[in-house]
Write a structure and sequence with these properties.
alpha+beta, three-stranded antiparallel beta sheet, three-stranded mixed beta sheet, 9 helices, 10 strands
């Protein structure tokens, strides 16, 4: 190998951590041409888990590596949310799914190769600002070199957590935001039973984080459901919410076919909800 090629490969080893993904555009921008990429693949320095996507080999690909790559390597405004964020923080891991869905929230369209990677998990992408204000983040706001002391205070009740043996930063919805995102999936992808079980365990939510989220949320369905479940479980934090500042709209919301009407929040709920208590 020539000295020039050795310098190139050493730079690749410094810039691209083992196991993380980058696309052809990233490699091109960093001086690795198409012919070099082919040589690195042939030589085993790189592998292609999907067309136009590369990584330095290190064991099976995990969904967390993919998301960290999107955030820290490709600087995309994406965060883990909904049920996935709750599971990651230990609130819903005991609820079984027939297939592991990874819920990602972004202010921009994510690359198509995301859905072609060799993973057992399936990525489901959502518009981050569909019912909550856009966080205003141009990118993820994190870098791999950060330590917990360096983690930024992110807007919109997002947070940074560590993952893996290298303790890489992962941008994720706080439990408060994640539960509202979960409610948005009810009843199409989530069930009242699972949501009820998750809320039962949310004994330490922060009213300080919840209040602005509930005031800013544009989904009447999500806000009514949240207050319904909060009343149902009577957690101490619920008493500290200023409900007068939460607009709940007018009229009824038929969420369940053949359900019964909860007259406090004008939403239909399953007939058997009382039996779950």
């Amino acid at each position: 190998m020539t000295e020039h090629k050795e310098r190139k490969i050493n730079r690749l080893l410094r810039q691209l951590p083992e196991g993380l993904l980058v696309d052809a555009g990233w490699l091109e921008d960093n001086g690795f041409s198409r012919s070099l990429r082919s040589q690195y693949v042939d030589g085993g320095w790189l592998e292609q888990p999907a067309r136009g996507v590369y990584r330095r080999p290190r064991g099976p690909l995990a969904w967390e590596q993919v998301v960290i790559s999107l955030q820290a390597m490709l600087d995309l405004p994406v965060s883990v949310g909904g049920r996935t964020a709750l599971e990651f923080q230990g609130y819903a891991h005991y609820l079984r799914q027939t297939q592991q869905d990874i819920h990602l929230y972004s202010a921009t369209k994510l690359p198509g190769w995301l859905h072609k990677l060799p993973l057992k998990a399936r990525f489901l992408t959502h518009n981050r600002s569909r019912f909550l204000p856009d966080t205003g983040l141009a990118g993820s706001g994190v870098s791999l070199s950060m330590t917990p002391d360096d983690y930024p205070a992110l807007p919109g009740a997002l947070r940074v957590m560590q993952w893996g043996e290298w303790k890489w930063p992962l941008v994720i919805s706080s439990a408060e935001r994640a539960f509202l995102e979960l409610l948005d999936e009810l009843p199409t992808r989530e069930t009242f039973h699972d949501v009820d079980m998750i809320m039962e365990g949310l004994v330490n939510l922060s009213p300080r984080r919840l209040q602005p989220l509930l005031e800013q949320a544009t989904s009447v369905k999500v806000k009514r459901l949240f207050l319904y479940f909060a009343d149902r479980h009577r957690h101490q934090w619920a008493a500290h919410l200023n409900r007068d500042r939460i607009t709940l709209g007018k009229g009824k919301r038929a969420l369940v076919k053949g359900g019964r009407l909860d007259r406090t929040y004008n939403i239909t709920i399953p007939e058997d909800m009382d039996a779950l208590q």
